[in-house]
Amino acid sequence: MVYDARDLVEETLLPEGDPLLITKGTPMDVVLSFLKLTGYTRVDFCYDSFQWAKRGFVLDIYSDELYRLDFDEEDRVESIRIVDSETQMSIRRTEYATLWTRQIPVRPIDRMTQAVIYDSERTYRELRAVEVELTFPIRKVSPVKIDKFISVPSFSIDDLTAYKGKMVLVTQFPEVFSRKLGWPVFDSISAGLASGEKRFLVHGRIRMPFSLDGFDIHIDREGLGWKVGHRRSLELSWHGLKVGEPVLHVDRGVGVYDGIEYVEGKPYFSISYKDGHVLVPLERSQKLVRVPSTMSIDSLGPARWSRKSRALQQRALKMRSFLENRFKQKKSTQSFTIEPDEEIESAFAQSFQFEETSDQKQATEELHAWLAIPHPEEALIIGESGVGKTEVLMRAAVAVASAGYKAVIVVPTRVLVDQYMAAYSERIQSCGLLLSDDPALPWDILVGTHSLLKKQLYDDKLALVIFDEEQKFGVTHKNWFQEHFPWVKVIFSSATPIPRTFFLARRGYVKLIRMHELPYGRQKVTVFADEYSPDLVRKVLSDELDRGGLVIYIHPTIEGIDLRALELQQMFLDAEIEVLHARMTDKRIKSIFKKLQEGKIDILVATTIMEAGVDLPIANTIVVEDATHLGVSQMYQLKGRVGRNSVKGYAWFLYPPTASPATRSRIHSTVKLLNYSDSYALAELDTRYRGIGEIFGIRQHGLVKQEDVFAVDALLEQTYREEETEIVSWPIKMNIPEWILPEPERSNLLKDILDADTERELMQLFLMFKDLVGHIPEESKALFAYSLLKVLGNKRGITMIKFNSRGFQLVRENEIQDFKTGSVSSWDAIFAAVECLGGAKEWFEILKA
């Protein structure tokens, strides 16, 4: 097990009593009998102790931990996994599970008998902070660089096969490696060492390689070259279908989703209208869009919806025409081809004092290729607060400056300018470049606010403009540089981009770069919503002060903020409290931030000036006094001000006792999204609810009526979907059976699979699905194969894939290619089509398994 120092003294409830020990081979009926006798509660998904769930071929049981049991054909336990109850995804394998009948409080430190300490200097410092002294045997290991592969940390199967020394590979995908290498898989490093094996695999994650007992303990960061990123967590998609809720059919109008209905054994999405219902084949899932529950239900009569849809269709087509003309215009304009100085780039990268995440590495590589394009392109970097977007932006700026050109970084507040200068001035100067916040001084990279939008400040060497916290700028600001310097490239960065920008990126007019991997040691911030009361505020602040952290308290207005600070001071007489808002002088703001960095402030009472990208690693809890006037984007940004270190972060969004039921419901719903959705999902939600705005105007979101927002977005999306690959005469039944997953997860996953745009997204869905249900039935594999062929066909410009008794045809405009598989097996034809279209080899393994 891996523990943070603070986790060692966290008291938890540990079940005990007369346990049932489950190992490989334990019969299912023995497990079910124990659950019944001891009073475990059956649910769809386990989130609390003493719950159990059955889905497909797995049993989930929450005892001291959440266990997931896979069963073989004889209903005996085949494997056991430990699961994260928040994401519902597996963390690691284990050899046994212990089911208990009652609970007692216990600390992990009280149960430990030995430990391996990693990075001892840092670990002992953290242990002293929580007043822990280790009294049992320990061993110390340190992070080391292991130069034994062609490229570290990325390596190939050939590298591993040729390696003859002692090695442990820690990976999230041990089964995949085991199939290819034949190495055994162990639950822990110590178990593998005790086995006598020279090379083996362990399911898990570590931060850096190290050596132990002559073994190289190494990390897999790329997953055999198949970059699936983090496993997708179980969450209700905002665009998913929910039984009893309204749904928009782009050809029929708004109806009510009734669930999956079968006709002659074939599944359909069933939609009810005022005067009838419609069955939609699974293959037409893109025509369905979930809409708010406030929208009225239409009749099936053609008059009302057809009249309205014609007008909205014209608007959608006008938007698309404008976008395509603008895109062609940019392609005809020449820009600089950036060829960075490798020595300067390397020096800047090596000065980064933290470990680079795989997402930072990937984003940097993508921007390198993007900077080499000889046209004035635009890019959007989207990622949660704290994933390291700023470092990626600065590396792009350094790449441009090292090539002899100039880069400008525009931020919304002076606070962020000072933050950039403090974090990067010395690093950039050490590389022989100049970072400045004063355009009158020499500079290679200039950082500032809106005041930088002055033509006389720049010459023809300007090559790159970066808008950090993009959501804080208007269209006029973001277009200013390209209007005056049409050759420049522009990068937008945000955790919550404006709907207009997000739509352009999603449709390919702006390059989209997604980041979601938090740096090692970071924990997910937990978000709460509640009614404001002095007692609640006192408890939340007291809990944070007791663990030595900083509290950010957000007051809704500048008026009354000093009085609130005095009231908090009365609650906590010994606490150091400061006030921060936008009307303060720059000198005063800098003074407060200096005290914050030095750890001299316990409670910071501020306005929403804290919203835009302020980086305070010592802040662990944020309390928003009145969230009634905040949108999804603002709440997400405020949540991102905490949890930027290894300590667990908390965000509280409060509302006054006078808040209406609708307002309370909205805040609680948003908090649920903040807990279970990433920044990309929230950007999709924001776009859907606010609309994409005026593509050819200056409004960045919104249309007059909410119904129009959904309809125009759906119709515009449909104009692109109509050009996608059509699959005709699909030979195998496809579905997710009702006994595999409950609603609404079943309908959500069906639609997510069918609407997937990339192989990576589809692979993430497959890994999530397999984790949740164990063995995947053939009809569900067929669903993934169908969507995979659509993704591959779209990527390669295929108009139609048509299956027949001899094999299949590929149609590309007027060209038809016949492929004969020489087999009567439908799967042979499907695999041949996947191979023909260049599908990844991993698909053959997982679909044939």
TrEMBL record:
This enzyme's EC code(s): 3.6.1.-
Assigned keywords, A-Z: ATP-binding, Cytoplasm, DNA damage, DNA repair, DNA-binding, Helicase, Hydrolase, Nucleotide-binding
GO biological process: DNA repair
SMART domains per UniProt: CarD_TRCF, DEXDc, HELICc
A single GO molecular function term of this UniProt record: DNA helicase activity
Domain Helicase ATP-binding per the UniProt entry, residue ranges: 370-515
TM segment ranges: none
Superkingdom classification of source: Bacteria
Pfam annotation, one family: DEAD
Helicase C-terminal domain segment(s): 532-686
Protein name (record): Transcription-repair-coupling factor (Trcf) (ATP-dependent helicase mfd), putative
Organism: Coprothermobacter proteolyticus (strain ATCC 35245 / DSM 5265 / OCM 4 / BT)
Source lineage: Bacteria, Pseudomonadati, Coprothermobacterota, Coprothermobacteria, Coprothermobacterales
